[in-house]
Specification:
By secondary structure, this protein is of the alpha+beta class. It has eight helices and 15 strands. The protein has a seven-stranded mixed sheet with strand order 1-3-4-5-6-15-7, sandwiched between helices. A six-stranded mixed sheet has the order 8-14-13-11-10-9, sandwiched between helices. β5, α2 and β6 form a beta-alpha-beta unit. It is globular and about 70 Å long. The two termini are about 35 Å apart. GO terms for molecular function: acyltransferase activity, transferring groups other than amino-acyl groups. It comes from Populus deltoides. InterPro entries: Acyl_CoA_acyltransferase, GNAT_dom, Plant_NAT.
Length: about 375
């Protein structure tokens, strides 16, 4: 066990990588056991690598690495007077070695990361956690002044290896990056947490593309500028290949989950003619697609969103690595009615907490308590 003075340092890949990977493994067991665990494939900063600005801090006690935290910075839409664009700092990846918890190490890491945010003129720091993660809620809300901001839903749908039959009444078209950026800026700039650098996200190699769906027979040609007429009903979304960054795998899963997965695979192999809904093989590390920027317009658009989700599912069936499709929507967003998901794998109420880092007059408590201006929000795929 390490001893001596606690020191907080910036992550150095040559010095700290092995220690961080060992800490991740140790945090898979203990008081906060996780069913789904992240396999970073030898790159501990993979989850923030694509952010405009990022930083990882490590806590050392003597020669032992006992804690880590990550953060990223971006410009995004946040509704506050007198402007709607704010600089946001995202907190993620806080891990404390099981034998060193409740010693204030987590608080030290949070404070040091907030200092980095403040030095870079960040307006708000925010983080996401499970609603029932008492340790995380206590640390951020009770000790560090974060406030409950939004409770989005994380929707997870397993990928069956069989392709779905798509409706013949719907057309699907892939957009050029310039076309997708035009539509996102035209229709989603008022959406909470819409990133100012959306073009960089769409051009990233991990973004597989943006697709639109509209009723067959209507036109979708030459629309990439103002004045062009769009179909009366349409929907769009983009897909991010998170599996290229890191993998997911089962950690301390219940025995029933293990047996259900094994039996489902076995039944599907022995009786393929039954065409039962299959459960993917979650026993080995696997990748996933993240659907982001889901938007819809018109009376038929809900069904069009559903069609696009089926389209993405069929894309995923061609990947040996992708086992689930994930998206995150506002807690009261009507999209929840049209995006397919497996209830047992999803999280109906994720918890987003936010903290003002600037003591501007009349703003310090307004944003966390303000009701949503829209039911939708934009989840940056770089922060998944």
């Amino acid at each position: 066990m390490g001893c001596g003075e606690l020191k907080i340092r910036s992550y150095d890949v040559q010095v700290h990588r092995a220690g961080v990977e060992d800490l991740e493994r140790r945090c898979e067991v203990g008081p906060t056991e996780r069913v789904l665990c992240i396999d970073t494939m030898g790159d501990p900063i993979c989850r923030i690598r694509n952010s405009p600005m990022c930083k990882m801090l490590v806590a050392e006690l003597g020669s032992e690495l006992v804690g880590v935290i990550q953060g990223s910075i971006k410009l995004a839409t946040v509704h506050k007077p007198p402007k709607n664009i704010a600089k946001l700092g995202y907190v993620l990846g806080l891990r404390i070695a099981p034998l060193h918890r409740r010693k204030g190490i987590g608080s030290r890491l949070v404070l040091e990361l907030e200092k980095w945010f403040i030095a870079n003129d960040v307006d708000y720091a925010y983080m996401a956690t499970e609603k029932d993660n008492e340790a995380s809620v206590n640390l951020f809300i009770n000790k560090h002044g974060y406030a409950n901001f939004r409770t989005p839903a994380i929707l997870v749908n397993p990928v069956d290896h069989r392709a779905l039959r798509l409706s013949s009444k719907t057309e699907v078209a892939k957009l050029k990056v310039e076309e997708a950026e035009f539509l996102y800026r035209k229709f989603m700039t008022s959406t909470e947490f819409f990133p100012d650098d959306i073009g960089n996200i769409l051009r990233n190699k991990l973004s597989l593309g943006t697709w639109v769906a509209y009723p067959r027979g209507e036109s979708w040609d030459d629309f990439g500028s103002d004045g062009k007429v769009l179909p009366r009903s349409w929907a769009m979304l983009s897909v991010w290949n998170s599996g290229e960054l890191f993998k997911l795998r089962l950690g301390k899963a219940p025995l029933s989950c293990f047996l259900y997965t094994k039996s489902s695979i076995l039944i599907d192999k022995i009786f393929p003619c039954f065409k039962l809904p299959a459960i993917p093989d979650f026993l080995s590390p696997f990748g996933f697609y993240f659907m982001y920027g889901v938007h819809h317009e018109g009376s038929l658009s809900g069904k069009l969103v559903q069609h696009l989700c089926q389209f993405v599912h069929n894309m995923a069936t061609k990947s040996k690595d992708c086992k689930v499709i994930v998206t995150e929507v506002g807690g009261k967003d009507i999209l929840r009615l049209y995006i397919p998901y497996r209830k047992s794998l999803s999280c109906p109420e994720d918890l987003w907490c936010i903290k003002t880092l600037k003591n501007e007059e009349n703003t310090i408590h307004q944003l966390p308590k303000a009701p949503p201006t829209t039911t939708s929000l934009f989840v940056d795929p770089r922060e998944v």
